[in-house]
Design a protein that fits this description.
Layout lengths: L1 E4 L14 H9 L3 E5 L10 H7 L2 E3 L2 H7 L2 E3 L6 H4 L7 E4 L7 H10 L2 E4 L13 H18 L21 E5 L3 H12 L3 E6 L2 H10 L4 E5 L2 H10 L2 E4 L25 E4 L20 E4 L2 E4 L9 H22 L1 H7 L1 H4 L2 E4 L2 E2 L2 H7 L7 H4 L1
Parallel strand pairs: 1-2, 1-4, 2-3, 4-5, 5-6, 7-8, 7-10, 8-9, 10-11, 11-13
Antiparallel strand pairs: 6-14, 12-13, 14-15
Helix pairs in contact: 1-2, 6-7, 10-11
Amino acid sequence: MIIGVPKEIKNNENRVAVTPAGVSEFVKNGHTVYVQATAGLGSGFSDEEYIGAGAKMLPTIEETYTIADMIVKVKEPIESEYKLIKKGQLLFTYFHFASYEPLTHAMIASGATCLAYETVERDRKLPLLIPMSEVAGRMSVQEGAKYLEKPMGGRGILLGGVPGVKPAEVVVLGGGIVGTQAAYMAAGLGARVTIMDISLPRLRELDDIMPANVVTEYSNEYNIRNAIKTADLVIGGVLIPGAKAPHLITKAMLPSMKKGSVIVDVAIDQGGCFETSKPTTHADPIYVIDDVVHYCVANMPGAVPYTSTLALTNATLPYAIQLANKGWKVACSQMPDLKLGLNIIDGQIVYKGVSDAFNMPLKNVDDFLA
């Protein structure tokens, strides 16, 4: 198979979908890999390293899309890439369709096969989302602490406090990977942390493993309303796989929050879990509504591309090798976890979360695998 690795062109996205080590694995399995020139520079990988691993380099993104049977990316294609995607081409990347209808329509029109990292599911876990959720969860506290500083627009509070001065209050919505990592980081910096979830079994697990300055609380509207009144930093990390995130904090709730408090919406890729959230970029990461600082960068891990690229490709490469070796139909037929990654095939939606998000027809994925 011919694999294409284009350079990511989303704002401040420095990750790359395949490392030189990954190229070497593809080549070892008999495949040809074309990498767009400078695609790996943002993550610390030179063109020479790719060439040394057996890749062929192409100067433009257009050539990379044109030659490839399978495109492996990090982020969803942006508008300038839509016209480059070919009918029957396999795209293996993050899509987050449910949060952006124009992308959904563009991929339907392309006739491509869209296999989304974020809906590959194994043992009720999302193995290709977990690494970036871990990065984003840890970064959410790092960024939240920064924007709590007065020069950055925040309250001017140190997350961990100092002797004689109380630490910040941090509320984490969601007890999954993002929430767990965020709570650990905030607790490690000395903040007082409340982590909220709707699963009592999960809250029991968190209560057992978290440090003493983390408390758990059942998540409902009443408890959320009370918690955010005293919060300095609120981190949203809720996830419904492949579907739009629910709004847990409405615009009407914002006036009850402290002036200069910060909310970090890690769920923004799936539409955001705060009603006032809208996607931002690393170039312009924040905005203020009702004196509350909103940080809603849609590709947070792109700011730490070396760490993120290695973490992501460790997880995606085994699946990508199977897709290349067997073709997507056989690979998805044999691997139920990979089959769940199929979102759009030949102009048809085959993933319920995407269909429900836009009230569009849903086709049976098995009809395409027969």
